[in-house]
Structures are given as structure tokens and as C-alpha cells.
Design a protein that fits this description.
The protein has 686 residues and is α+β, with helices and mostly antiparallel strands. Helix content is 46%, strand content 22%. The model is unreliable at 3-9, 173-178, 496-502, 542-555 and 643-647 (pLDDT under 50). Residues 252-304 form the PAC domain.
Length: 686
């Protein structure tokens, strides 16, 4: 580390011990990977570390005490460090910024591909400090992660950026060197990073304010205490092997956890640099630490989100096959039931089977809600009114010893949400609360407005904006910590076998996330549970849509056969039977290729009813698009057991209705009749 010119008098005024510490600090800074330079108010170079030459490729003849800052800027501009442009203008812009003596941070890509993080920190009335960090590999890794998973990497990058900023603030201690030890301590206390010096006997000789406060100590109170006293026996046992390694002259890095005064577990990452004297011999440690508690929480939240997304993808992938199976079962059972004479004993077996199959279809719909793949019908819903209207239903559903309370806003609050799904979610939460209070208790539903500011947006994984918050609280038995992390997983339940499916909370989770909100559960064993979720706030609708009368009587408006396209033979047979029973002649095709040929050669086809996902290289969406171009007036109905959000978006562009499996004959009849009515009202598309 270069010594500043003109500093003989202040340095000679130091005691030998102070001079030794000063030299050790300078020597320690030369071990850092970051480049550091201190400029006076002129501004001219005062001091620097070895990394400045290595990292920025400055010639040694340029890097000397007294070199004007402008010389470095001009050197960089002439060799293209700032890109193309007028040299004098580039120099003038950077000199104006330097003379402003304002903190700044930029990242600069050098012509050789190296990326540097440049931070400037003013020293009041004296000059400023510049720090350069090579972040080339880090940026390259971030780009790779971003290509793999842009959405998840964005959240991780935010957390990583916060950690990097903390690391760079730690590095500011190197740039905060002053001509006296007292000035250096003032700077160290001003930054949000933890730094300490420990002697060979593992007793603190110095700690900045952040370090002392992190352990609940004062700067003066921590001095002369041992590491074991400050950390406590459990945390000390974790870090002791690392300290032993540092005593051998190795620079070590490690993480540890401890309980703070409030009993909360906090985490830190430390770098320990051995203090080795110039004459040789171990003298102690330099300790640099940062608080990574929030980062740990973010990593845990990310892991949970990935797990829930994986389960959701699995659920959505299985839904198509299950719905096809249920279509076959329900269709055959319904046909068998209609063919049985009234009062036939076989009905005793058919009715329960049909009811069970229909329950299976409902189960699939609930799983799709969890996986956020169920189609919602959101609108402006006055949440307070909805909750108020539900209280009577809840009072009848819950036991008499469960008291229902509501806390509703005075002014209407509207959320953009599917009202039926919201009612189901509240009912599920109320039933869970009832089961948690077998001896009775209080259930409270609160509604309030909530604003998510920028400071909380990343933490709660929601865009900045206005939301409606709903709290459902009970005074029940609570949830154990080990179970709390799994409450949203499908089929996970703390209830005894046969008392619950484990789909209630998972359905609520999927509904809230698909609606653009988020949800969390807070619980203390023995003291109750609170489920809090927020939904996007909106304004009241200007008009109220009237439900259309779907009943229809009369003959068919279109003559001709229905072209039925379905790759599953048994599903195709069931739908064919339903169509023929409704009076429609049917032409069948097992795939899109054969259906396309029929469309091109059979002129009197009246309807196209096609599955969405089919083998053979031509999907239902593509077949519908081809049919629309070939016969613009042809009514088209898509049927699906499951289609991803992306596929449905593409179908929406074609303005083609979608009927979800399993469906009965009456539902199919209504869908075809609506197609006929729409076709009669709408001119042929061109």
C-alpha cells in the first residue's frame, strides 16, 4: 500500500502501537481483491493499494502521489474505457461529477470485456475514496441464470444485489483510511457493515458500532471480552474450528447463526483475515461480517416457491388424463342409468358410482385451482359485502360454540377476483378454524385496505400497488412449526385420517396466487392461527352484467353432421353417444390430420367439436385455425381435459369457446345451442 505524501508529521505523532496498527491496516488492504484509491479535495491521488495497478492496468508511472484525478480520467478516455465520443467532453463530464463530491456507484464494461463496479464515497472537507471491484464472473453467472429461469433469477438477483451492496459497503472501510486512527473509526461506524479486531487471545480490541450492536453490546463494552463470551457457547462451538484455521495464517470465510436478545435466529457471514506482524507471528484476526438474515429468509421462500411450482406442474399434467378417464366413467354410467327401468335394483349400484365419479371431477378442479390452472372469472367484488353475506352461512355451518366476528371497512373495498372462488376460500378457512377449536372459540374475519410499497414488493413477491387484505383468525390449538412450512402442500393435513383431504389450504393458495395476490400463515401452538391474504384492489364496475337465460326450446338452427375429433377412442364414443342422443349426426376423426381432410372434402359439416391436445402433429387449436380460414362461418367448440395457460391464450385469440371435461349431455347441449345462436347473430368471419 502506497504511503501518502506529506503525511510524515501525522504519522510520527502516532504511538508505536498506533503506528503498528496503521501499517497492518494498510498491509491488510493490499490483500483485498478490490482496488482502492484516496483523492484529496484537489482532487489528487493520496494513497492506493496494489490492486489498483493489477485491476485497472494503469502504468506505474501514472500511479504516484499527487497525480491529478483528471490524468486517470483522460488516460481511460483515450484508451476507450468510456466508449466512443469526444475525449474532452468525456473528461469534462467525469471531472464535473468528481468535483461534486457526491456518493456514486456505476458499473463499467471495459473494452477487454471485464466489468468493474466503481463506487465513490466523499470524505467530508478532505476529498473522496474510489473503489473498483471486478464483477465480470459474477455478471456472467447472473446472465446464465437469467437465461435458465428469468422469473426466479430476477428475485434472486435482487437479493444478491443487496448482498453485493453490503459487501461493497464493507469494502468501503478500506477506502476510508485517514491520517489518524480516530478518523478511520468514525468512518467505520458510519457504514452498515460489521468489523472487528481480535487479539491472539481471542479478546476484542476494536469493534465498530454495527458489530457491537449486532451482539447487543456497546463499542466500549465489547472491548476486552472474549469471543466465547460474546457469541455464547453454541455459536462459539461452530466458529471455533474456523478461528483455529485462521491462526495458521489462512484467510477463512464461514456462516453462523445465533439467537439475539428477542430470541430470533439471525445469520451472518464472516471473513477472518489473520493479523500477522511484519516481523512474523500471529497477532490476532481482522473480522469482516455482514448480516444475511434476510437473504436466508429469501432463499427459504424461493425453495418453497419452487417446490409448490413443481407440485402444481405435476398436478396440471395429470389433470388431462384423469379428466379423460372420468369422461369415460361418467358418460357410461349416465347412459346406463338412463337405460335402466324406473325402480330397477341396479340403480342402487349405478347412482353411488356416478356420484363418486362426479366427486372425482370436482377433486380435479380443486387440484387445478391449487396449481393455478383453473379458469377464473374475476370481476369487481365488494369484499366487505361478500363477507357480511357469508356470516349467516358460516353461522349455520360451524358449531354453535364457535363465535363468528367480522371487522369490515366503513367504505366499500373492491377486489378483482372470482367471487365464487373467494367464497370457497373463506369457507375452507372457516372450516379449518372450526376443526382447530373442538371446544369452541372465536373466528374473526377482517377486511382492510393495504398498500404494498416498493420497500416490501420484493419481499412479499407482489407488484407495488393497492390491495384488499383479508385476515381469518381463530383462537384454536395452532400449528406446530415443523408443519407450518407444509400447510399449502396438497394432501398434507394435520387432521386424523378420514377427517380431511389436505386440499383446503392448497386450493386457497392456488386461488390467491392465480388471482394476483399472496398468502401467509402465522401460528403459535396453543394460541391460534391467522391466515392473511391480499388480492388486487380495483374500482367498482360501472355496469352490472345480467346473466343470460341459457334455456332453449325449439329445433336446430343448422342442419348437417357434427365433426367430432378426439384421440381417445372411449372418450370419443361417449361424446358420440351424447351427440346422437341430442339428435346430431356424427362424423368421427381420431386426430387432426384426418379431421382436416374431412373438413376439406365434406361440405355439409355443421359443427366442429375437437379436443385441444392431440397427437399427430396437428393440435385442436391449429385445426380450429385451419377450419376458421377454410369455413369462416363454421361453429367450433373446443373440448379439453386440461390446457395450459399459454394454450388457452392462443385459443382466446381465435375467439373459440372451450368446454372442459368431464361434461354431461345437458352441458354439451347448451354449449352447441349457444354456438348456433351466436352463429345466427354473427356474420361470417372473413
Amino acid at each position: 500500500m502506497a504511503k501518502p505524501a506529506g503525511s510524515t508529521e501525522p504519522l510520527t505523532a502516532l504511538t508505536p502501537e498506533q503506528r503498528r496498527r496503521y501499517d497492518l491496516l494498510l498491509a491488510g488492504l493490499d490483500l483485498l481483491d478490490q482496488a482502492i484509491a484516496v483523492f484529496d479535495a484537489s482532487p489528487k491521488l493520496v494513497t492506493w493499494n496494489k490492486a489498483l495497478l493489477r485491476l485497472l492496468d494503469f502504468p506505474e508511472s501514472l500511479v504516484r502521489v499527487g497525480t491529478p484525478f483528471e490524468a486517470f480520467v483522460r488516460f481511460n478516455a483515450e484508451r476507450g474505457e468510456y466508449g466512443e465520443g469526444d475525449i474532452e467532453q468525456l473528461v469534462a463530464e467525469r471531472m464535473a461529477s468528481a468535483r461534486a463530491f457526491e456518493p456514486h456507484y456505476v458499473e463499467r464494461a471495459r473494452p477487454n470485456g471485464q466489468v468493474l463496479a466503481v463506487r465513490g464515497v466523499p470524505i467530508p472537507n478532505l476529498g473522496f475514496v474510489s473503489l473498483w471491484t471486478d464483477i465480470t464472473e459474477q455478471r456472467r453467472a447472473e446472465r446464465v441464470i437469467q437465461e435458465q429461469n428469468a422469473q426466479l433469477e430476477a428475485r434472486v438477483r435482487e437479493r444478491t444485489a443487496e448482498l453485493e451492496r453490503a459487501n461493497r459497503e464493507i469494502d468501503q472501510i478500506a477506502g476510508a483510511l485517514r491520517l489518524s486512527e480516530e478518523r478511520l473509526r468514525l468512518i467505520l461506524d458510519a457504514i452498515p457493515a460489521m468489523i472487528a479486531h481480535v487479539d491472539a487471545g481471542q479478546r476484542y480490541r476494536f469493534a465498530n458500532r454495527a458489530y457491537a450492536e449486532w451482539f447487543g453490546e456497546s463499542k466500549q463494552g465489547i472491548v476486552d471480552k472474549s469471543i466465547a463470551e460474546v457469541f455464547g457457547p453454541e455459536a462459539y462451538a461452530v466458529i471455533q474450528p474456523h478461528l483455529a484455521e485462521a491462526e495458521l495464517g489462512e484467510r477463512v470465510s464461514y456462516e453462523y447463526a445465533r439467537k439475539n436478545a428477542e430470541g430470533r435466529t439471525v445469520y451472518a457471514r464472516s471473513v477472518v483475515v489473520p493479523d500477522v506482524s511484519l516481523e512474523g507471528g500471529f497477532k490476532g484476526y481482522f473480522v469482516l461480517s455482514i448480516d444475511i438474515t434476510e437473504q436466508k429468509a429469501s432463499q427459504a421462500a424461493l425453495v418453497q416457491a419452487q417446490k409448490m411450482e413443481a407440485v402444481g406442474q405435476l398436478t396440471g399434467g395429470l389433470a388431462h388424463d384423469f379428466n379423460n378417464l372420468l369422461s369415460i366413467i361418467i358418460g357410461n354410467l349416465a347412459a346406463l342409468k338412463e337405460r335402466l327401468p324406473a325402480g330397477d335394483a341396479a340403480s342402487e349400484f349405478v347412482d353411488p358410482a356416478l356420484h363418486a365419479a362426479q366427486r372425482g371431477a370436482e377433486l380435479i378442479r380443486r387440484l387445478l385451482t391449487f396449481s393455478r390452472r383453473q379458469t377464473l372469472e374475476p370481476c369487481a367484488v365488494e369484499v366487505g359485502a361478500l363477507v357480511h353475506n357469508m356470516t349467516q352461512l358460516l353461522a349455520r355451518t360451524l358449531t354453535e360454540n364457535v363465535r363468528v366476528h367480522t371487522r369490515l371497512p366503513e367504505q366499500p373495498l373492491h377486489a378483482f377476483v372470482d367471487p365464487h372462488q373467494l367464497e370457497n376460500a373463506l369457507l375452507n378457512l372457516a372450516l379449518n378454524a372450526r376443526d382447530a377449536m373442538p371446544g369452541g372459540g372465536d373466528l374473526t374475519i377482517s377486511v382492510m385496505e393495504r398498500h404494498i410499497p416498493d420497500s416490501l414488493s420484493m419481499l412479499v413477491e407482489l407488484p407495488v400497488g393497492d390491495y384488499v387484505q383479508i385476515d381469518v383468525s381463530d383462537t384454536g390449538c395452532g400449528i406446530e412449526p415443523e408443519a407450518l412450512a407444509r400447510v399449502f402442500e396438497p394432501f398434507f393435513t394435520t387432521k386424523t385420517f378420514g377427517r380431511g383431504s389436505g386440499l383446503g389450504l392448497s386450493m386457497v393458495y392456488g386461488f390467491v396466487r392465480q388471482s394476483g395476490g399472496n398468502i401467509r400463515v402465522r401460528s403459535t401452538p396453543g394460541s391460534g392461527t391467522t391466515v392473511t391474504f391480499v388480492l388486487p384492489r380495483t374500482e367498482a364496475s360501472a355496469a352490472i352484467e345480467q346473466a343470460a337465460d341459457t334455456s332453449h326450446v325449439g329445433r336446430r338452427l343448422r342442419e348437417g353432421p357434427v365433426l367430432l375429433v378426439e384421440d381417445e377412442p372411449e372418450v370419443r364414443r361417449i361424446i358420440r353417444l351424447q351427440l346422437t342422443e341430442l339428435g346430431y349426426p356424427v362424423i368421427e376423426a381420431p386426430d387432426g390430420q384426418e379431421a382436416r381432410s374431412l373438413l376439406e372434402n365434406v361440405e355439409d359439416i355443421a359443427f366442429l367439436v375437437t379436443d385441444t391436445v392431440m397427437p399427430g402433429g396437428l393440435s385442436g387449436r391449429e385445426l380450429a385455425a385451419h377450419a376458421r380460414s377454410l369455413r369462416p362461418e363454421l361453429p367450433i367448440l373446443l373440448i379439453t381435459g386440461y390446457a395450459s395457460d399459454g394454450a388457452l391464450d392462443e385459443v382466446a385469440e381465435l375467439d373459440v369457446p372451450v368446454l372442459r371435461k368431464p361434461f354431461d349431455r345437458a352441458t354439451l347441449d347448451r354449449a352447441l345451442h349457444e354456438l348456433e345462436q351466436e352463429s345466427a347473430r354473427t356474420p361470417a368471419r372473413t
